[in-house]
Amino acid sequence: MKIKNIIIIISVIAVLVLLIAGTIALLVSKIIDGFKPGGNPSGAASGDASSLQSDTQSSGKTDGSTGSGSGTGSPDSSNPSDGSSQGSAGGSTTSVAPGDTTKISVGSASGSKGDKVSIPVEISDNRGIMAMVAGFKYDASALKYTGYKRGTVFTGYGAGDITESNGLIQFVTVENNDVTKNGTIIYLEFEIIAAKAQESKITLTVNKDSIGNYNEELVPVITENGKVTIK
Questions:
Q1: What's the distance, CA 65 to chain centroid?
Q2: Which of 39, 84, 157, 202 could cross-link to 161 by cystine, CB 3.0-4.6 Å?
């Protein structure tokens, strides 16, 4: 009798594990399938405007100058500075979804040719995210992507989940459950290779179904672009 009970318990646990794994796999599949690597995610416009939800409303840009800065950001203690310029969150608002929304902001920094800058990607008003796919477009003729530092919000990504090709960085993370923490998602690191003074944009692009929670619900977001001011 005891052996039968043990077998029944093990069978129930196995079924629950399979159901949970299936739910996670389905959610991740939906999110990743909606993103097109190597270019703009479907539904996201290039430049200063993105379409995130079918009912998303475009908004005018805010003054990007309020978010710029040179080395003014405060990196998390788990990401000590290596001498590179630490950017500050800021830029221009690119799209707004109605209702209570999570905000993802790309930081800004400044420097001259040869300088290294670290751009934080911040999240605030986090309503709960389990999986996310995002792209970061930048001018490869002005900036050279050199790597990244981990933030403190998400833990479900590794080196293989962050890829770069032809001026587009793709970021993928999958968590075990909904994460509601606010803070720095990741630091994107660049070397300035352009000598000409200019503002080089770093544009966050997300598909309308790129971000979801444990219940397989899409998570609407407000996005904010960043920039590197080359002196």
A1: 22
A2: 157
Structure tokens at 212: 């979801």
Which H helix or E strand runs over 4? helix 2-33
Task: Give me 53's structure tokens.
Answer: 């939800």
List CB contacts of 175: < 8 A, sequence separation 6 or more.
129, 130, 131, 154, 155, 156
User: Which letter, b or e, does each residue of 23-54 get, where b requires 16 or more Cβ atoms within 10 Å of its Cβ?
Assistant: ebeebbeebeebbbeeebbebbeeebbbbbbe
The Cα 51–Cα 58 span in angstroms is 8
Give residue 131's pLDDT. Answer: 96
How many alpha carbons fall within 13 Å on the CB side of residue 11?
Answer: 6
Number of domains in the chain: 1
Q: Which of 92, 40, 96 is nearest to 63 (CA)?
A: 92
Residue 219 sits in a domain whose CATH number is: 2.60.40.680
HSE (side-chain half, CA atoms, 13 Å) at 19: 6
Average pLDDT estimate for 22-36: 54
Summarised one tens digit per residue, pLDDT across range 196-208 is 999 999 999 998 8
pLDDT of 140-150, one tens digit each?
999 999 999 99
- What are 105-152's pLDDT values in tens digits? 999 999 999 999 999 999 999 999 999 999 999 999 999 999 999 999
Give the H or E element holding residue 186: strand 183-192
